[in-house]
Design a protein that fits this description.
- The structure is a homodimer of 297-residue chains.
- By secondary structure, chain A is α/β, with parallel strands linked by helices.
- Chain A folds into two domains: 2-114 and 284-295, 2-Layer Sandwich (Nucleotidyltransferase, domain 5); 125-278, ATPase, nucleotide binding domain (Nucleotidyltransferase, domain 5, 2-Layer Sandwich), CATH 3.30.420.
- The first copy, chain A, contains eleven helices and twelve strands.
- Chain A has helices at 3-7, 42-54, 95-103, 112-123, 185-189, 191-198, 210-230, 247-259, 266-269, 272-275, 285-295; strands at 9-15, 19-25, 31-38, 59-66, 81-82, 93-94, 107-111, 131-137, 141-147, 150-151, 234-238, 276-277.
- In chain A, a hairpin with a 2-residue loop joins strand 9 (141-147) and strand 10.
- In chain A, helix 2 packs parallel to helix 3 (95-103), helix 4 packs across helix 11 and helix 7 (210-230) crosses helix 8.
- The longest helix of chain A has 21 residues, at 210-230.
- At the A-B interface, strand 9 and helix 7 of A face strand 9 and helix 7 of B.
Chain lengths: 297, 297
């Protein structure tokens, strides 16, 4: 690696429904400067982001990890757009085009969760693994999937938060998902679902509260489905709800008990503590993954 | 391509729990000769298979698509083995080693369903697609997943037949899966489950029989989960149960209704008839895919 490569700078945007994180970093994933910008209107938020990047004259490329759904099909007329999002004012916004035109540099684009998975693959808990799944459980529930270091897209991109799981016995909660009500993970145990069920944030549950069993049951059900479908080498769980680390052992135990010795492999039977883990980059998976999207351009 | 390449021959084994199909074919997927051998003891079945291949002096390589679970980890001491199968006498059989030693040629090895997916990718309904899922619904339920033309493995390999799905309202069937009883697809709607529920094969249901709704509901639930997790470009459904083609429109309609317009993409909203399809190779997906495993060595 030459000295010049070491000095190259890249831009990154982690675009969320409540805030944008904009950052400048290098090929090692070191963030030199970053700011937070509230997500208001596209005009306001995008131009404030642009102002931040314009301070740097020598950015090689930009990476964007965005809330969605977004169009990732490079053959599509609306490639690089945020498409049918419920977020007011943000439908059909040409996200990639705006920065490509204004900064005249290559722009990498993916979902916020695929970006977070990429960050964990490059510099976090998923380094050198052939397949990882990153799941965020917060205001929404979403998942990114990396196979051989590359995010999978297919007909759209994974939307793991909306997989439907068997009901926890006796659970009569009516759900919060506008599409799947109380049937999908997001409807059953996203942050807003938890607040609606029990009037509490996920880090406020007292010992013995019913929420522990319900949340860990549904997450274990969803993860069992993911393990049996993708067979990933590691599963990384982030987001506000998972900042409550006491959920991890409950989830791991329930997965083992649900699989019931069907998968005779050490990752499940012996080393599940290393298999289902918190993000190695703490809350930086998304922004560092967005940086990686820029670097890979 | 040279004339020599065109003339090269490859061996293939589709290894199932009731029979082995052994075949000789070329790089175009054309089968020159094939035989069926009952799956009895490993000694008997493997040596009969070997006799078939020994008739040919010039086989370049062999491909095996096998029932499982199998060990696909090339760094493992038991790579190429059938491992913890419930099939009597077939535990810890060194499948790859047996043929590698006896024939002294390279041997490709994967699950029967990953092989079938590969066959469909090379010569069937999944040609030139970036990601496909092949599901077989028969004596067991299994799934193969191809990303960029390569079967995914991870910590083991996909075992999609065992994903757990929400209950059909009022369904009190106690299931047939020894691991997950009435909670997973295989326990609920595999061939033996259908026989135990209604005393019928899946091609014997009269018009209006309750089975249509139950089977299509569970398959649609499982496929919804697969679509939201992998976002594959095509889903191919094979196996004995799916030879009843009337199930296809029922499944497609239920998936649309369960997704409830969440995925605003033409593959689901407009062209679902081309998205969820029977195998292009009919019952040859597995043996031709095994051939492809040999060719790729």
């Amino acid at each position: 690696m030459t000295a010049t490569q070491n000095q190259k700078l890249y831009g990154a945007i982690e675009a969320g429904g409540t805030k944008f994180v904009c950052a400048i970093g290098d090929i090692h994933g070191d963030i030199k400067e970053s700011i937070k910008i509230p997500t208001t209107t596209p005009e306001e938020t995008l131009s404030q982001s642009l102002d931040f990047f314009r301070k740097y004259k020598n950015i090689e490329a930009l990476g964007i990890g965005s809330f969605g759904p977004i169009d990732l099909n490079k053959n599509s007329k609306t490639y690089g757009y945020i498409t049918s999002t419920p977020k007011k004012g943000w439908q059909n916004v040409n996200f990639v085009g705006y920065f490509q035109k204004s900064l005249n540099i290559p722009v990498g684009f993916d979902t916020d969760v695929n970006a977070a998975a990429l960050g964990e693959y490059k510099w976090g808990a998923g380094q050198n693994l052939k397949s990882i799944v990153y799941l965020t459980i917060g205001t929404g529930i979403g998942g990114g999937v990396l196979i051989e270091g590359k995010p999978i897209h297919g007909i759209l991109h994974p939307e793991i938060g909306h997989i439907c799981v068997p009901k926890f016995t006796g659970d009569s909660f009516d759900g919060v998902c506008p599409f799947h009500e109380n049937k999908c993970l997001e409807g059953l145990i996203s942050g807003p679902a938890i607040m609606k069920r029990w009037g509490l944030q996920s880090d406020q549950f007292p010992e013995g509260h019913a929420a522990w069993e319900v949340i860990s049951y549904y997450l274990a059900s969803g993860l069992m489905s993911i393990i049996l479908t993708i067979s990933p080498e590691k599963i990384i769980l982030g987001g506000g709800v998972m900042s409550n680390l006491k959920l991890f052992p409950l989830i791991r135990n329930k997965i083992k008990s649900m699989l019931n010795n069907y998968l005779q492999i050490p990752e499940i039977l012996e080393n599940i503590n290393d298999y289902i883990v918190p993000p190695g980059l703490q809350s930086d998976s998304g922004i560092k993954g967005s940086l990686a999207l820029g670097i890979s351009q």
